Amino acid sequence: EVGRTEAGINSMRAAIEVLEQVPEAEVDRRDSTLVRWYYNLANTEVTWGDYATGAVHAEKAAFYNRNLSVSPTYYNCLLLRLQGYTSEHTGDFTTAYEYFQQAAECMANFSGDSQNYDALLYWALRDLQALTLGRMGQLESCIDQLERVAAGYQALGLPPSKVNSNLAHNLHNQSWFNLQLGNYARAKQAAQEVMDLYEESYPNTYYPFIANTIVLQGQVAQATGDFGTALSYYDEALESLSPTYNPEAPLSDLQTTDNYLIYLELFDYRARCLIALERENEANEIYEWLENIISRQRQTFRSGLSRFNILSYARPAYEQAILLNLYPNEGSANL
User: 20 to 30 A Cα–Cα from 159, which one of 33, 111, 176, 303?
Assistant: First the structure.
């Protein structure tokens, strides 16, 4: 937990620098410790959104792990997964897919019994592979693999409380990619299955990921022209996220999570529905508020990637405002 602060990260880096000076006579103990420390450091940097630096330190962990010349271990699997994750977030989807493939093959050494938790991690790695296929634009292959993974989760025989979270994320992704292909009926069905799973696993309890699926239900409704229903979903999602994210408060890089960006993007979704419902004045107010918030918040980020992330979420709102002529007296040059 200390590592989740900037001071903690600096302390981890300083400790690693000292440890790398350990004499060669202690090389095995040194390297096994460096594998763990570099892995933890890379994980923390990824949490902060610094994927490029995290990728460098994940490779350092892999380098020291190779030096140990040991048979495949959990650290091999976890390192490969981390390397896949950093590759994916830096846009190298082909390499990410290969890392996830290697990680799954590595985990197969530990998951012979289909009833154990190692098998759950095996299917989770296959899930990441499927998601990477989707991000590479291979949507039909992605959906096929997601469906196989869902069947794998359901066959595990583990308690639902241990499997349902993975299965819900899988079904959410099935809904999203079916939406991209125009398979609206399946997209709607999968999103509802997610909500049913969370009701089963967390009755009367707020769980952050639920908001993402509520947004997805709104997107499906919006894609089919049901703007009133879509707006209701977006309002419900905003209500569930509002206690967690205060857009007026200064942010740190640690807070530039996917959920926060979805929270900001939600306002753009709402504005588009309002325009379709001929409530342009309300949409205009949302875009003006978004411009003010995003211009102010992006200045607080330490990481250039974080600034880019939040700016990229603002861009569709600006473009939509121009296209809809909501700022007829401003002029595009001024914008």
Answer: 176
